[in-house]
Structures are given as C-alpha cells and as structure tokens.
Amino acid sequence: MIAKLVAPKLAHASRIRIKARLTGMNGGIDLEDENMVTPAERSTYGLYYVGQNIFYILLMTYLTVFFTDVGIPAATVAIIALVVKMWDAVNDPIFGGIVDNIKLKGGKFLPWIRISVFAIPLATIFLFAIPIELSLGAKIAWATIGYILWDTAYTLCDVPIFGIVGSMTSNVRERIDLVSLGRVAALMASLLIALLIPTIRKQLGGWLPTTVALSFVAAITMAPICFAAKERVPDNSPGKVSMREMFSFVLGNKYMLFIFGAYILFGATHIGSGLGLYSARYLFGQERMQSIMTMAKLVPMIIVSAATPALARKIDKYWLYFWSFVIIVPLHLIWFFAGYSNVTVYLFMIVLTSIPAGFIMTLSFMFTPDCAEYGLYKTGISATGLSYSIQTFSTKLNQALMTAIGAFMLFLMGFVEGERAVQVSSFANNLFSATTLFPIVGSLLAIPLLYRYRLRDKYVQALIKCNDGEVSREDTEKELEGRI
C-alpha cells in the first residue's frame, strides 16, 4: 500500500527533475539545470532531422518542377496539392489522437519513428517514379496517390520526432536546445539538397535515380536515433482522449490557433521557395544558379537558428517572432523595387530577407509546448500528440498551399509545361513580382493574429507549475489574472 502511494510521487518527481522557480511576473525565470539528454541522443536527434528534411525539402522545392517536367499542367498540380491537403486535414489530427491513445511497446514516440525510417523512403521513391510515357490521366492518378502515400508516411515521423523531446527531458532549456538543433540540422539538409540536385540530377540520369540515392542517404541518417534515444520522462496523461475532447482542446486553445495561423500564412505565401528552380532557369538562364541562391538563403538562416537559443534566454521568444513578421514587409518591398537585373543585389536581398525568415522557421516550433500547457490548463485535457499533430499539419499545409499557389500563379502567367519549353516574354518579370510581393501579403495578414497572442515565457512557467500540481489553480488564476 505504501509503495502504491509513493510511486506516483516518485514518477512526478522524475518528471520535474529540473526545478523551475518563477521569480516574479515582471522578472525572468531562474532555472536550475540538470542535463538529462546524453551526447549520443543529441547528435542522433540532429541527424534524424537531416534525413527527414532531405525528403521534405526535396518535395517542397522540386515537386512542382518534377510534375511539370513529366508533363502535368501547372493548374493540375495546384489541384493535386489541394486534394492531398484535404486528406492531410484528416490524417494529422487522427494520428495525433492515435499517439495519445495507443501505447506501443518501446515508448510513446520511438516506435513510430522506427516505422518512418522505412515508410518515407519507399513513399518518396514511388512518388518520383512516374514514367514520362504514361498518359496524362495516368500521370495525374499516380501523382495524386503517390503524394497521399508520402504525406501519410511523413505524418508517421513528424509528430513523434517533435513530441519525443518532452519524453527525453523535462529540462526546459534542453528542450529549447534540441528544437534549435533540429532546425539547424534541417537547414543544413536544405542546403545539401539545393547544392546537390542542380549538379547531380542530370549526371545520375534524372529525377528517379537522384531520389533513390538521396533516400538511401536520408534513411541512414534517420536510423541511429532508433537505437540511441530514451523516453525517460513518465507519460502522466490520464488515459484515452476522445474525439470530442480533441475538438474541445483545439477550439479552446486560441493561442495555438493564433500561432499556427500566422505560421501557415507565412509559409503559404513564400512561394519563392517552391519556384526557386524556375527563377534560376528563367531569370538567370541556368539551373546551377539555384545552388547559389539557396546558399544565400540558407547560410544566414543556419546562423540565426544556431543563435536563437541564446537570444531566447535574453529576449522573450514572442518578440523575436513578432518583429520578424514585421520586418519582412519593408525588406520585400525593397527587393521588389531593386529588381533582378543586378545579380549581386538580388543575392544580397535574399540574405537580408532570410534573417527574419530564419527566426520564424526556428521559433515557430518552440510555441507548441507552451500551447499544450495552456490547453491543459484551460480544458484539463492532456493531448501532447494532438498538439504536435496540429504543428505538423501546419507545416505540411504550408508546403501544399505554397505548391498550390505557386503552381496556380504559373498557370496565370501562361507557363508552358515541359523541361525545355519556351515561355512567354513576360514570364520572368511576372515570376519575380510574385515571389517578392506574396510574402508581404502573408505577413500583413499574420501580424494581427500574433498581436493577440499573450502567452509569454514567464506566464507559461506559471502554467507548468499549476499543471504539475506545485501551485493551486486559484493562486495561478490570481497571479495571471488579466494577463492571458
């Protein structure tokens, strides 16, 4: 009987091995760090993101190009992307609920990560294996089915790899460091893909051999975490979460809707990421220019991502996030008026606009645990998997909307499909205008949403203390009254 009474307290104690102390609502947070993550776990966690984002960037950057290269019209590509996202709108929340409700042998998140090491490479190879000699109808069917399979396979990894951070450590700073490490690794993978594909695609014999080679490399980098990671933080969720509770959790979590609404607007309107190879081909006349453009974009983003944890310790991450959206507007206006006739100026503007974009890409994923704590506090429902499924849905919706909007803009510009097709004379100017002006629209729509976000780091720490039972709800409500 004594063991039964003591065990829950011991589990709770192990969950909060980091002792957090709130020094005051107008002061900072004093944290006594206790490292829980081993060096092997840190390195393999970063390596996983290299592999995962080889797949993600391959699709985000080159899927539209591949589809149009094999003869699928741009307008049809836009429709395919939207159809897939209709499925995605269903499968992400469902999978988030599965993660919360089904306890597999080997942990809450690790079993799904292990499955993804095989599922994503196979789905990616299938998607890029469309034979060019097929009829248009067969190509469209293959593309749609392949994209749905890839999207489903990617769902298997995206929720668990973010969610496992909370299972590996209860140290708040270690969590921030791991998320930042993942962002840096993801950007390094982006740089790798951007440099390799324009160089090796023709040497290897086309899209399919290139995809097979990249999938092999990516799978190797994703595998080590399956053996190194340990889910050491006890899962204190009360049990199964019903569909009704899932809806209540999401609809009652206004801050989650604000943050991810802004993030979706950011990603969906940065159509230049998906049209980069078109810009290299038709603005500058050579595909290899894509590598230089991507280096100008990703190098500052990598530096920003690496510096973000240190900055987030001194400045509330919300303000870094908010002002990054604001500064995008004047920078893209300057870029538009500067034009693209001067290559040096064009590349310099890529560098400048990539700095706020780097903060947004890194910080977006640091708000998910905060929103999960707020959701638990407001609704009493513990739904970590669901929270991360909303995050992954937002990421994939970004990619799909960016693909759809970009492809639809190609259609409006009169784009002619086919790798060696000749475009109308106005195409280059229209392409440049769209890629520089659309991000302004996204930022202007996102800023009002972010302005309403009230969760600051010091308030989140108070929610954590309440949710962990260290402080009563009455005291927490009194402390936070009028602030959230």
Summarize the topology.
Blueprint: H1 2-15, E1 19-22, E2 29-32, H2 39-69, H3 74-101, H4 110-127, H5 136-168, H6 172-204, H7 207-222, H8 225-228, H9 243-251, H10 254-269, H11 276-282, H12 289-314, H13 317-338, H14 343-363, H15 368-379, H16 384-412, H17 427-451, H18 457-467, H19 473-480
Antiparallel strand pairs: 1-2
CATH architecture: Up-down Bundle
What is the share of helical residues? over 70%
Please give the largest β-sheet: 2 strands, antiparallel
Distance between the termini: 41 Å
CATH homologous superfamily classification? MFS general substrate transporter like domains
Please state the structural category. mainly alpha
Descriptive account of the structure:
The protein has a single domain (39-225, 238-475), classed as MFS general substrate transporter like domains (Growth Hormone, Chain: A, Up-down Bundle). The two termini are 41 Å apart. With 484 residues, it is an all-alpha fold. The chain contains 19 helices and 2 strands. Residues 1-33 have low confidence and may be disordered. It is globular and about 70 Å long. It has helices at 2-15, 39-69, 74-101, 110-127, 136-168, 172-204, 207-222, 225-228, 243-251, 254-269, 276-282, 289-314, 317-338, 343-363, 368-379, 384-412, 427-451, 457-467, 473-480; strands spanning 19-22, 29-32. Strands 1-2 form a two-stranded antiparallel ribbon.
